[in-house]
Design a protein that fits this description.
globular; Spore Coat Polysaccharide Biosynthesis Protein SpsA, Chain A; 2 domains; two-stranded antiparallel sheet; about 30% helix; alpha/beta; single chain
């Protein structure tokens, strides 16, 4: 398995179906989809379960365990060479996993990649882009923390 896409979820019934669908639309790379629901009570779990026959591995907590624990539970189920963590209200472009995994394959000294984020409204219309870096940048962990804190 090349990429494990981990999707922690809590009460995102309005978005989780589209999120999973965007992962299932990935091309050019082998992947698995792991969704860990944090005891949602808004119908999210039923939507997640509707993808069961499409290769989505779904798990659910009986009671809300908090965001960090739920993220870690999703990550703990990953079996891929690489891990892509996305929130349940995020969407991936169809070539995202292939491009990012290819970059990591070509740069063994790099351990994380990120990209610009296109912001969309609830109807799917783009209204902006968030780009942390204007040019490709390589940072060590300390530099990344310093850069991130400076952008808050």
């Amino acid at each position: 398995m090349k990429v494990s896409v981990c999707v922690p979820n809590y009460n995102s019934s309005a978005y989780i179906g589209d999120c999973i669908q965007s992962v299932l639309a990935q091309t050019g790379v082998e992947y698995e989809v792991i969704v860990f629901d944090n005891a949602s009570d808004d119908g999210s779990w039923e939507i997640i379960q509707s993808f069961r026959d499409r290769g989505v591995k779904s798990f659910r907590s009986d009671k809300n365990c908090g965001m960090a624990v739920n993220f870690n539970r999703a990550l703990g189920k990953a079996t891929g060479e690489y891990i892509k963590l996305i929130c349940s209200d995020d969407l991936l472009e169809p070539s995202a996993l292939a491009l990012q995994s290819r970059f990591l394959d070509q740069h063994s000294d790099i351990s994380m990649v990120t990209c610009a984020t296109r912001l969309i409204d609830s109807s799917g219309q783009a209204f902006g882009t968030v780009q942390r870096f204007s040019t490709p940048v390589t940072l060590n962990a300390t530099g990344l923390r310093a850069r991130y804190r400076g952008s808050e």
